[in-house]
Amino acid sequence: MNLSVAAVSEVVWVLGIVAWCIIRYPFERRAKRVPIVSNRRTGSEAVGLAAALAGLAIVPGFYVATSWPAAADYAPRLWAIVIGTILLCAAMWVFRRTHKQLGRNWSITLEIRKQHELICAGPYSLVRHPMYTSFLLMGLSQAFLLSNWVAGMAGLIGFGVLFIVRVDKEERMMLEVFGPRYRAYMAKTKRIIPYLY
């Protein structure tokens, strides 16, 4: 393995995780101060969040720290690092914009907060779930940055599990709370990929 190319890609991945933590921290702190009106947490949601955490942070972090499983390595490519870096920058941009747009409405789990509002501006004008869009972009960037079949693909698998177990429940919750307004919003927007899906 070309260590210099591999090392650069791993450093970029680590910087992405650091950026993710820096972006999320102040919103997480502020969210704790806003009372929760309705909590829809379920066991399947916990599984989805755990899968996303494992796939986007724990498995690749373990690989970066230990190089295990080295048997799944393949030769890193400079073009893949460039694509992965671009995707990671896009993911962080969407991630930040989504948090800013949500403001006091943000929650890590399925919760409705006091004076919860339906957000339809910013990234929400293009897709209903831009936070998932950022996770998808992170998973794709990880696949390009980490030249290991296990660690590289773990992010997309983790994202997929979270998306499958949670997005329908999230949309049902929003329909219960916002009714026809959310249904009209659904008719105008795609789920996570603008103009496609």
Automatic annotation (TrEMBL):
UniProt GO molecular function: protein C-terminal S-isoprenylcysteine carboxyl O-methyltransferase activity
GO CC entries: membrane
Transmembrane segments: 6-25, 46-66, 78-95, 143-165
Gene Ontology biological process terms from the UniProt entry: methylation
Protein's membrane topology: Multi-pass membrane protein
Main location (coarse class): membrane
Residues spanning the signal sequence: none
Gene3D superfamilies reported in the protein's UniProt record: 1.20.120.1630
Source species, domain of life: Bacteria
Keywords on record: Membrane, Methyltransferase, Transferase, Transmembrane, Transmembrane helix
Database matches in Pfam families: ICMT
Location in or out of the cell: Membrane
Protein name, per record: Methyltransferase
Organism of derivation: Rhizobium tubonense
